[in-house]
Each structure stands twice: as C-alpha cells, then as structure tokens.
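Entry 14. Ran structure prediction on the chain below.
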Amino acid sequence: MYMETNSRVDLGELAVILGTDEADVANEIARMEKEGIICGYHTLIDWDKTGEERVNALIEVRVTPQREKGFDKTAERICNFPEVTAVYLISGGYDLLVTLEGKTLQEVARFVSGRLSPIEDVISTTTHFIMKKYKEHGTLMRTKNKTERMPVTP
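Output, structure tokens:
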C-alpha cells in the first residue's frame, strides 16, 4: 500500500520499512512489474494550475453483452481510443463507466456521438463533465485558502 500512494519512494527507505535490504526490494519490484502486479507509474497533475485547457468526462455506457464474451469485446474496443483514460465494468443501470479526456466540451461530445455511440453493441450513453476535482488517486487537489483577515477581539 505504501508504494501505491508514494511510487517515488527511495528503495533504501522502502527496504528499511520492510526490514530487508535494497537488492531484495529491487528484485521484488522487478518481479511484480514482470508479472503485471505493478501495472505502471503515474504523475498526478493539477491541470487547472498549468493554464492548459483540459476537459474530463465520465461516460456511462449501456451495452448489449455478447454471447460467451459478455462486455469484454466492447470494453476492449473502447479501451483502444487514445482519449479514453479508463474503462470499468460497473453495477447498476449502466454496464461500463468510461473516463475520457479532451481539450473542449465539444471535442468530448464529438467523441461520444461520433465514435462511442455508433459502436454496434452500445445501447445508450450518458455523459457527465467533471467541473472541479477535489481529490484524485487519494490526493487532495486543492488546499484550503488561508484567510487573510485578522481575528477581531473585543
């Protein structure tokens, strides 16, 4: 769990935490990467602070499952679009939850109507635009503004 929340941890520090040596930690990490247990490393960026326009959307997708393949074939097809950042099989009124990144609201809408909705097994979609991120991947995206006012005392 420690590595999941701090992927930049120093191997020596991790070895101390685990009570082993650095070579063992490096070998174990290499093994977990090879076996697909560790799937990747990511940098979390607050794009609002960069001045670069980014639009994130959550798209609920209702799908007709295929015989013997269920939702997998449709999900894999959706995964291949470069603007798609994640695809999840979910419970509830929809089958898949797709996260998507674009430069504008119109770009996301064009993707949904022109690329996602026409997929043969897609029955319907609902798009939710993310207006503000408060926490992502366990990290708070904004800090509270400190008040500049002095307390008033009688």
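Residues 22-34 form the longest helix (13 residues). Will compare against last week's run tomorrow.
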